[in-house]
Amino acid sequence: MVKVGVKKVVAPDGKKVKLKPFEDNFHLLTYLQYFDGLQESGATFLKKHSSENYRLTFGFHCLGISPILSEDELFTIFEGLKAFNDLPMGETLTLHFGSFNDDQQRQVELKQQMDSVESDELRLLLGGTAKRIHELTKAGVRKNIFLNVYVTYTVNQGVEAGKGDWADRCLAALEKGWYQATGAYEEVKSRAIEQIILEGYLRGFTRWRRWLSNQIGLNITPMTLDEIIEADYRRFNRFPRSRPMPYITCDVKAQQLSEKSTTLDPRTLLLAEEVPDGQRSFIKNKGEYTGVLVLADKPDVPSDDPGSSLFYLLDILSKESLYNFEFFTQIRRGNNKLLKDKMNSVTKQAQNASKEAAKSGNVDVGASIAAEEAVESQATLYRQAEPFHTGTVVLLHRPTQRGLDRACADFRSYFRRDGWMVREEEYAHRIWLETFPTLMWESLLGKPFNRHRTYVTEELPRILPLVFNRSRAKKGFEFIASEGGTPIFFDLYQRPIRTGICAASESGKTMLLSDILVQSLPYKMASTVLEVPRADGTGSFDALCDYLPDHCAYVDIGNFDKGLNMCEPPDLRGFSAKQQTERLDAFKKDLVDLLSNMVLGFKPNPALNINPDSVHSILGLAVNAFYEDIEIRQRFAMAFQKGFGSMEWRNMPVFTDFIPFCSLERLRLPNTTSDILKTLDYIKLRFNFWRESSLGQFLSRVSSFRTDSQILILSLRGLNNETDSALLGSIAYNSAVRRSLSFRDSIFIADEANILFDFDPLAIQVGRFFANGRKSGIRVMIAGQGLGSISKCAAADKIFDNMDIKLTGRIFPQSIDNYVQVFKYPYELIAENASERYGINKFERYSQWLFDDKRLIPVRHYPGSALFSLIANNPSETAKRHQFWQQYQGDKVRGLFELTKQFAS
């Protein structure tokens, strides 16, 4: 690291001026990249000017603590916070919390999705989502919130910080002098730096990671090299980084280092766009103005309840009017003995002042209070609490100075007493520099005046920004947290998860499911939806299917004039030969199960006197013979090649083509017994029965819809008895499995589950999906109006034991106890979902939900304006939509665009 220092430069007017490079403010030598097996972590390597003191700064992403906690969870958290007593001496811990109105990354993702589809109709829906997110961001409703934790490992003059006495330091100095005299200093210094880099990971990083994760109990993820560089770079620049940074790579297991160098110093590369302009009361950087506020005194919490201390900052930092700010708290462990001596001195001074006042007949109230507080502080230290030196700073960013002044005044007003939070008016630029723990050596608020405040262990939570809502996932379907406004991602597009959605009618459930389906289309996923139509025959997804006919197919299973080919295999043309074999075998296995149920019924019947194993075995052989038959294979191949609607498609093999394969001639059994003949006769009897029935004929026709449609809506009309519902459930299950085998990722949704699950066979099939669907990449979702009937269905255990995500909307007051008993929700929390104000906000057009992914987060769903116009289903909205369809007949994009404008106005 080269420090240029102050130089005299001739200005344009001929005068000489003194200038100092901005880079000289920082102590960065280079960046570090560690590889420990498959785990990567990053760090910065600092060197104090004019000394051989080195520091490594590591970073962690922190998920934070959920604002909704049980008493047991709260107790566990406070027990974990006591581990601050073990904070390494001589090291610093910096918490960097930020909240910004920024949707740039999300807009890039949505733009990529729009570019990946060819349909103008679909682009309009996706564009509506992007527009809504941008509007919410601009209004301050949607904010990106993060918490990064930075920790240090310091070596002073060859001795680890907090260790060694004056003798160790003298020996280190003598050793340095010897090497300089013998000319071996540079080589020894190089080896020492390599050792510091390696030990920084082994003794610093690993210790901090265990301490933060195991002792404190935080959910942390190490920051990689790129993430640390980007975190530094974004604080100076508006646009993405284009030039590489120098760094050193360390293979921990091999103990080898390699350097990636550049011609420019990393400090110069960080200032790619402009040099920040530091003023007394603000900093101009990235085209905006930054104000600095300092926590000047200990804030008083509203009550003695420990929870009030933990949630103190949440109540302030989550305000909707607060945005584009950063909150820093830096902590260093103090000397317990020195503080005890100081408190003892303060106590004696206060007692003496009180005695002197008493001699003169006066009462020194201030001295008495000071004595009591000092005694209490000493008592706290003797109760195994430790002192900590802290600095707390807030940075506010606004595009104008006037806006910054107003924002600083507003932020100060959020604190209960004047003087707790003050704006720095003299050397704001200096404090701003100290908020870079990865670049600066000096502590926060340490110079030029020591403005640290001393807290004991039990007081620390009130200045720790640990409690906030944060999404576990980084991508997916987006909700917005009701408190704090951070995006909460439901990552069903990235991984196969099982979900339960419960909400009363007119709570936004159909809008939510439609939005999930629409946003699945750019991911090339297949979705199968079971729904129960309304009494008038209409369905929840009719409008979506009519608008997107190229992506969505609607099948009324109660309309037996149509067809659903149960023998149609998955389309495996995009898979390797091995994958084709594996997926076809999986399909055949499920088809055998379906056929067995058609023969034996869906409930055991001992009176049949037919061996179920024999039935299953014979059908397995028949299915194999059917799909290995050359003619059958050719007919399937030609049907897929020519596509839906072609002559070859209409000639695709169906159930009636399969029945002849259940014969001795086709099976070629080596030994036949009377039992086998009896079983074969019974199989053919049952198949002939199904062939003549309306439902059997429905299954014996080629599919009358595009089976490669990404969205398939199966309307289960006519569920009147157990037998039909069992077969329909098996058909739906079989169709979903076939589609999951044709597509690498798929979604299965059972809408109106509280009605569907009245039929045990349907519930059992969905239960199988919850238990086994993840293996096939199937995302399983059930949606219903209530939890009671679902919790009592035949597959309740399989469903609830495997449910990853729970979404609860508006519920009825009488059903609160069900959620308390089944989901173990606190009564006070779930009772909010039954209040009159819960549900749909008609003015701002969002629905409210309780999102449960092991963290309880109240969230809002904001559908895009175009989707809202398309799906809104009250009578007046439906009538208006039909009016626009007729007016713009043949131009759905223009019609929906104009309808959206009408709804918006």
Task: Name some characteristics of this structure.
33 helices; elongated; 4 domains; 12-stranded mixed beta sheet; TraD/TraG TraM recognition site domain-containing protein; 16-stranded mixed beta sheet; Rossmann fold; 30 strands; P-loop_NTPase
Secondary structure blueprint with pairings:
Layout: E1 7-10, E2 16-19, E3 28-36, E4 39-47, E5 54-62, H1 71-81, E6 92-100, H2 104-115, H3 120-138, E7 144-156, E8 159-160, H4 166-182, H5 185-216, E9 220-222, H6 225-234, E10 247-251, E11 256-260, H7 266-270, E12 277-278, E13 283-285, E14 288-295, H8 306-310, H9 312-317, E15 325-333, H10 336-359, H11 365-382, E16 387-398, H12 401-413, E17 421-423, H13 428-434, E18 453-456, E19 477-481, E20 487-490, E21 498-502, H14 509-520, E22 526-531, H15 542-547, E23 552-556, H16 577-600, H17 612-628, H18 630-642, H19 647-650, H20 655-658, H21 664-667, H22 674-692, H23 694-699, E24 711-715, H24 722-742, E25 746-750, H25 753-756, H26 760-772, E26 778-784, H27 788-791, H28 796-801, E27 805-808, H29 816-822, H30 827-831, E28 840-841, E29 846-852, E30 856-861, H31 865-871, H32 875-887, H33 892-904
Parallel strand pairs: 3-10, 21-26, 21-27, 22-24, 22-25, 23-24, 25-26
Antiparallel strand pairs: 1-2, 3-4, 4-5, 5-7, 5-9, 6-7, 6-15, 7-8, 10-11, 12-13, 13-14, 14-16, 14-17, 15-16, 16-18, 19-20, 19-30, 27-29, 28-29, 29-30
Protein name: TraD/TraG TraM recognition site domain-containing protein
